[in-house]
């Protein structure tokens, strides 16, 4: 791919997260690499490029439509990496995955859609493996922090001689930020699939739904799909279910299986939303759980969807810069090892996880594929952030002000 004329194409550059990602690339991509903006409207692309300042004024603009496969194929042939924010991915994403897998072009997205990723694996993993393409899903808030944190924990424990990971718990702490319109649209699509197809619903609930070898994994255990309301195992407080956690866990388990279960055959990973110890913590935990159940139930009916569409952000919409500036998140992973050690890894930033934080994670994932090729795992196919990019992401995110650390407690 060294002969490709464009290093990175950002597809969906005129959407809300797309524009944020474009700004990040304009500020941090070296002048030595070529970045292009892609979307359906050249006029809108021109307006976005104008906002980016002098460094981006010579960036190529590509008119690409997700419904026109010829334009997707041409974009993939010209690029080393295609970054896409065009979702819901189950509706718009598979043709681009197909184009990149066939062309040997690396691909990065921010999906949290388990059915889309499962389809991507089943249809295009072999083609991507043969062409050398890295199809890397979920390089945003779903599910890069989780995937990276467990990878760093397993690497540190192994280097210290502490053996494989066993019970491993992620705690989302200090989360402040709004859910993106794209994430909510993906959630709505996920719920519709589950309600219309019981077999798909069972797949979506399976903690090992994304495993490359489901028969080699444990039998389905609902206790591993999400956390309930209760006292924290590792911290002096309470935890509640977190909407993104079931999918994050599926990605982490795929990473483990793709690396021949290098984290440990006994890995048991799940996540929850952590609430600091207080008299009101159990009430808040229950309220979070009820609120998430109500949101899920609302998306499951036409009346509920109509009401929610009037109060929640739509795809392409997002909060004000002032509100995003107050965003933050921290994921803290606690892991026991088979030899009795305990490790803690933290990944977080003073950024809104679904918007500014995701834009940085997405942009740095793409830049790593171009600039850190010698440090990447030797792997191709439909991958995860941990297996397709690896620990080099930790250094890249630290350079952008993210907090990433691992320690033995």
Strand fraction equals: 15-25%
| Main β sheet profile | 7 strands, parallel
| Tally of alpha and pi helices | 16
Q: Element order, helices and strands? A: EHEHEHEHHEHEHEHHEEHEHHHEEHEHHE
Mean pLDDT across every amino acid position? 92
Label the overall shape: globular
Summarize the structure in words.
The chain has 409 residues and is of the alpha/beta class. Helix content is 45%, strand content 19%. Strand 5, helix 6 and strand 6 (134-136) form a beta-alpha-beta unit. Helix 5 (94-103) packs parallel to helix 6 (114-131) and helix 11 (281-299) packs across helix 12 (302-311). The model has no long low-confidence stretch (mean pLDDT 92).
Index terms:
globular, seven-stranded mixed sheet, alpha/beta, 409 residues
In short:
With 409 residues, this protein is an alpha/beta fold.
List the helices and strands and how they pair.
Elements: E1 6-11, H1 16-28, E2 35-39, H2 42-51, E3 61-63, H3 69-78, E4 79-84, H4 89-92, H5 94-103, E5 106-109, H6 114-131, E6 134-136, H7 144-159, E7 165-176, H8 181-196, H9 198-205, E8 230-231, E9 238-240, H10 245-258, E10 268-275, H11 281-299, H12 302-311, H13 321-325, E11 328-337, E12 342-349, H14 353-371, E13 381-383, H15 385-388, H16 392-398, E14 403-408
Parallel strand pairs: 1-2, 1-4, 2-3, 4-5, 5-6, 6-13, 7-10
Antiparallel strand pairs: 7-11, 8-9, 9-10, 11-12, 12-14
Helix pairs in contact: 1-14, 3-5, 5-6, 7-10, 8-9, 11-12, 14-16
């Amino acid at each position: 791919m060294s002969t490709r004329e464009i290093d990175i194409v950002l597809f969906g550059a005129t959407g809300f997260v797309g524009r944020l990602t474009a700004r990040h690339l304009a500020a941090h991509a070296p002048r030595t690499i070529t970045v292009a903006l892609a979307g359906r409207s050249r006029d809108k692309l021109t307006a976005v490029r104008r906002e980016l300042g002098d460094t981006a004024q010579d960036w190529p603009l590509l008119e690409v439509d997700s419904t026109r496969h010829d334009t997707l194929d041409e974009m993939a042939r010209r690029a080393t990496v295609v970054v896409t924010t065009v979702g819901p991915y189950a509706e718009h994403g598979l043709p681009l995955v197909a184009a990149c897998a066939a062309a040997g072009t690396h691909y990065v997205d921010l999906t949290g859609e388990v059915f889309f990723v499962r389809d991507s694996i089943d249809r295009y993993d072999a083609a991507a493996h043969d062409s050398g393409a890295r199809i890397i899903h979920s390089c945003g808030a779903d599910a890069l922090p989780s995937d990276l944190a467990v990878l760093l924990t397993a690497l540190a424990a192994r280097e210290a001689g502490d053996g494989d990971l066993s019970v491993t718990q992620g705690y989302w702490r200090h989360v402040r930020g709004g859910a993106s319109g794209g994430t909510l649209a993906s959630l709505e699509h996920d719920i519709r699939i589950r309600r219309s197809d019981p077999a798909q619903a069972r797949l979506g609930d399976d903690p090992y739904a994304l495993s490359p070898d489901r028969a080699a994994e444990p039998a389905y255990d609902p206790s591993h799909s999400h956390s309930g309301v209760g006292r924290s195992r590792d911290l002096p407080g309470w935890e509640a279910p977190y909407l993104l956690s079931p999918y994050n866990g599926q990605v982490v388990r795929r990473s483990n299986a793709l690396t021949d279960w290098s984290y440990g055959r006994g890995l048991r990973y799940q996540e929850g939303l952590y609430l600091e110890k207080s008299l009101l913590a159990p009430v808040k935990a229950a309220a979070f759980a009820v609120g998430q159940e109500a949101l899920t139930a609302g998306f499951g009916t036409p009346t509920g969807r109509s009401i929610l569409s009037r109060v929640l952000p739509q795809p392409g919409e997002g909060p004000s810069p002032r509100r995003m500036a107050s965003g933050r998140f921290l994921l803290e992973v606690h892991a026991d090892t088979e030899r009795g050690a305990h490790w803690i890894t933290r990944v977080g930033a003073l950024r809104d996880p679904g918007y500014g934080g995701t834009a940085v994670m997405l942009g740095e994932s793409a830049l790593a594929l171009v600039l850190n090729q010698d440090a990447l795992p030797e792997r191709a196919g439909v991958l995860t952030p941990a297996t397709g990019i690896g620990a080099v992401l930790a250094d890249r995110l630290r350079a952008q002000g993210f907090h990433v650390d691992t320690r033995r407690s």
